[in-house]
């Protein structure tokens, strides 16, 4: 069998890409990369290594995603993972290497912090996630722990799509349109308002395009993620009561993001920042829209989850004793979320509890016959 596979393993292209512009002036450390494409049957693998005059990495490979929209997208989702106390890391490394995921969404707050010790903490973090990030799209958004030097460590370490320094962007995978935002542009106003305004205007355009009938027909799910939650019921944090992203800038109320979720029919919104897991009922402006059927069957509003308990040196966060009416499930255990967009109508979420050695403690199916703006 091994011999047969060896015979069928065909090297299709071998492309030596001689030099990549590092984006800064450094005569002695120009990074380079080498990529080749290989095929086993109809599955294409890209094999690569990267390096410079300081040395080269070992070879890594990743599988290109299938064409079209009709395949199951499987994602690992979490935020707030540091170098220390990263409880979920070994689970994620293991699952990624076994091929359980097509994409990772790291919803802000890395390393604690990447700029620390002349950015050596950031270097160590990148080595830590290498077993995941070398073989999968490791998609990110900035959190408050990335704010130093105007998010420069974040922007230079992660190359996300688009031309906005990895701060906000979108991408399509299977039946899902993923949108990544910086909630931090609402909080670190010392860096100026321009990025906040740019992001808001870009987001309106991006969601409007994703929501056209043709695009919604082709790729019906819209999943948006950003770092600080619009809703949470933790006992130790004021961010969810500040509500800058939900209701707009203080006093002015401008650039509020929650109305865009309604206007463009965003299906699922993912946050982190709180070191815990929380799922809401379908929710808009503090009110629950559970409808008359099962709550998540054709829900009347977006569903929110907060998943910031991957593990960091700040430990987990507790909750207020009595959950608000919109809170459906919550846990302060370490863990991460799995998402599977099965097809045009069915999307599955589950929460893995690593304190309970990988047990799934929460799960739900969001079922939608139609994806459209909410009638609220
Ligand atoms: Fe945070």
From TrEMBL:
Residues 301-363 form the Purple acid phosphatase C-terminal domain. Residues 1-15 form the signal peptide. Keywords: Glycoprotein, Signal. Residues 74-277 form the Calcineurin-like phosphoesterase domain. Gene3D superfamilies: 3.60.21.10. It holds the Pfam family Metallophos_C. InterPro entries: Calcineurin-like_PHP, Metallo-depent_PP-like, MPP_PAP, PAPs_C. GO terms for molecular function: hydrolase activity. This is Jg3200 protein. It comes from Pararge aegeria aegeria. The gene is jg3200.
